[in-house]
Amino acid sequence: MTTPRRSRRIAAATAAVCALALGATACGSSDTSAGSSPGDVKSALEKGGTVKVWAWEPTLKKAAADFEKKYPKVTIELVNAGTGDKQYTALQNAASAGSGGPDVAQIEYYALGQFTIGKTVTDLAPYGASQHDKAFTKGPWAAVAKDKSVFAMPMDSGPMALFYNKKVFDQHKIAIPTTWDEYVEAARALHKADPKLFITNDTGDAGATTSLIWQAGGRPYKAENTDVKIGFDSDAGTKKYTATWQKLLDEKLLAPITSWSDEWYKGLSDGSIATLSIGAWMPANFTTGAASAAGDWRVAPLPQWTKGSKDSAENGGSSLAVPKDAKNKELAYAFIEYATTGAGASARVAEGAFPATTADLDSQKFQETKFPYFGGQQANKIFADSARNVGTGWSYLPYQAYANSVFNDTVGKAYVSATPLAQGLAAWQQASVKYGNEQGFSVNK
Fold it and tell me: pLDDT for 422-445, tens place per residue?
């Protein structure tokens, strides 16, 4: 990661945020390549060619194979250029050079803003993307579309749910929490029954924190071009989250185990980590990482901040975008449209992807799918209901990747010291404001 450049004002949003803490040294040009008049997609498919796709999502292999079968003159070249920030660094470097990038790139929703603000991705509305606005659930569509522009197509989604170890809860006769207050009580009861049991693990995670703030009704980020507001200190939803999570921290009811570690999978396997509040894409990870606990776990709706509510939020998920310097944008869009809608999306769902498409979420086949790992439970019904109840109006920072990278330097202190969580969030806000202003944004002014 490069050192942030010194603060300097900019005259227009199209010149903003070249590096964005991801290693690029200059912005790509803001010419018509980011929103040029498209050619004929149908003619491009008839002519054929190669589409280079940078992505790490495994079900795209099925979509690529099916697409090539349908359009024999087209070759889809899948390249894993690294996950998350590694790929974003490569994308920014390619945009700076004006060459070397892919025709299609997987970009997580939280990171998409940094590419749209720098105009390094193509507006797909002129290619026909706008016609799909009703095809996707509201959370993912809001992440990729703004005003009349569509900067990517939703590839999957992560509506949240509560995964819980039924065996552990039954053993200790503890009811499944339906509110976050009940969740704290369950945490106390579990840990009292067996000091080795924890309601969940948490060592500080930016994505999990922002998702739960989102579910609590918090909207701490506001961004309009280069004007940015960050308000954790005045946000009501943030205060709800902080008050609850501080109790869990103060009473040492959270396992000090980092997610995705070997120790984490061990905790999921033996039940010492009793719940996870996470996106609906999680089941496959249980199956592969905690296979010995098959039959122990179940899925329930996310606990609510207000009893009787059904509020939810997104946790994770990715889109497919066309970089501004893509060589064949018509073919690139054709593949994106296929992979994210209709038969292509359904094929990926069959391979294990969690859909962002309402048709797949509402289908009887999807809803009635039984999960052997979860004791035959039809968990998709809970996931689909969660997707329908994702709160609107959420936005990320246009430099969220950087903000997330300093989360543990700020908020993380609340997990390893006496620093209050609210103070940690205030420090995160301060660091994010400082960095944004250094990068040419006008933050909290």
Answer: 999 999 999 999 999 999 999 997
